[in-house]
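To assess whether the prediction recovers the assembly geometry, we first specified each molecular entity separately, as shown.
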Amino acid sequence: MPKYVPGKFAEEIAREYGIEESDIIKLGSNENPLGVSPLVSKAICKNLDTLNIYPPIDAADLRKAIAEYIGVPFRHILVGNGVDGVLDTLARLFINEGDEAVIPTPTFSFYQLSASILGGKPVFLPRDANFDVQVDKLLETISERTKMIYLCTPNNPTGNMMREEDIGRIAESTDAMVIVDEAYVEFADKNVAHLATKYDNVVVTRTFSKAFGLAGLRVGYCIAPEWMYSEYMKVYQPFSVNRLGVIAGMAALRDKEHLERTLKVVREGRTYLIENLPFRTYPSQANFVMINVEPYTSGEVTEYLLRRGIIVRDCASFTGEGTDRLIRITVGTMGQNRVVVEALKAFLEEH
Amino acid sequence: MPKYVPGKFAEEIAREYGIEESDIIKLGSNENPLGVSPLVSKAICKNLDTLNIYPPIDAADLRKAIAEYIGVPFRHILVGNGVDGVLDTLARLFINEGDEAVIPTPTFSFYQLSASILGGKPVFLPRDANFDVQVDKLLETISERTKMIYLCTPNNPTGNMMREEDIGRIAESTDAMVIVDEAYVEFADKNVAHLATKYDNVVVTRTFSKAFGLAGLRVGYCIAPEWMYSEYMKVYQPFSVNRLGVIAGMAALRDKEHLERTLKVVREGRTYLIENLPFRTYPSQANFVMINVEPYTSGEVTEYLLRRGIIVRDCASFTGEGTDRLIRITVGTMGQNRVVVEALKAFLEEH
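The predicted structure of the complete assembly is given in tokenized form:
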């Protein structure tokens, strides 16, 4: 079974390296640098008297609010305990012992875990030198046993996107479910949510953990073909999304200003990082920038930063060739971005 | 696939029957009649500034607090998104396609769902006339394919408990995992948490949803043999317990007064219901009382109460013989208990 390796936590690094927790800069988990919307905090404090009551089983009010945000009828919206919860529910629906799941690598490592736990076999397909999915090769990789194809766009950890026509081509060439993970799509220029209402085998997954700043509350969702609702609910863990997650998600959708501020900070910070990081960077449509630290290893550079209280994401744990040269850096506040740029320059001066 | 049927929601009944939501009495989901502890509300409002950060992956601080409450080393404590999340994680660990899960019925219907989703086959064993598990018959039911045995004590929806020596006898007679679900154990006179440190194949599941009043936040846990920690974490959905669930669980454990008040209200109300309900009742060690409404059906009695804004649990959806005569009534505040007693008396007068 593959092991899921999360980004490091501030508390852990503070303890391990003897640094004050408040001095740690956490740019390893693609969290929102502005924190949570004040509307969310207010909504939560107003709704604490019903915490003894089970959450609404299918989070209907939240699903309606999401449907309005996306612009689809609300039976197309399904939720879960974070996007991980959505992915696990989809795997329960579609993966049986011995089924195959096609995964272009490197990418978010939860896909292979989620499929493997249900007895699925991940079939890895390396991306090309620019980390683009090799669509022709992917089509050749699809077999009769292929039940799921995981396409992350913008891709974690590389930051690049897939073209809509490529996703459509894949969907049209197979009966397997095409999972398009748009966890980072708010930071991008376009999205493909509409493909989930166009094709019967496309699901687009989304999260409140990134642009909406609710990683701590575990609210994920997907846009799915209409036929899927009743099937999904059969294998859905009842009450998956907690009561405050429902309330916070709805409040976050109402706070358009907080979202706009977040997008502005991320886009400006992303440009700054790409222009100033003293290593090879890659174009990014997400809230992180990936660098290649050759001839150094991701492990030694990451360790250097950790000792200075800066957490970034060593990509060595991602499946794929050469990931031990890759580091993913979350776009932070401009102050944080400057610190990480200076620290990497110092690394180069010392090595 | 079996379908999970939850208790009815106040909002749903208000809409369907044209009743003010605030007039609804909700005694169908075994929630805490006193609501949430004030220490929990305070702790949540103090910790809203970190909602943009992922929860601690293994909820270590909460697990330590639970370990202290139970009195075991903290590696014996595992958590999940509600007890349903714990049960699903255990099923991922132990159930493969074609494996059997022994379930004495009637009982909590999530067990059969959780095992079935992973390709397991529920093997139902009817309880005796007093709803006690027929231990000899259960031992005969165990086969080479048996991987899990689900024992709920106090049992939902019947309220009775298993004897510790019977659980020990079952554990000693098989290599299958014995899941002892003690979701309601705080309302009972004794518990068997220590069996999970005595036997390598006993797991005791618990929840914050009942006595601790946190159903809305989805915090479940189990006491497990020490060897299980590393295995459990391999198939555990990372960040399953949300950040506020962690904080709320720790605060709830600190508020011993709220727990004591809850237990007092439930025990007094339980005695009142058993003495005054105008139908056959069964002894209960939980925060609910089951009645047998023969010669009426559970459906017609439940419907009569719903029209009066009183939600109780029709047991007809539980697997087993004769469950369409059974109704489970959550112990509420004394005022609520009186209303349900009077309404059932009125039913009998009218029929």
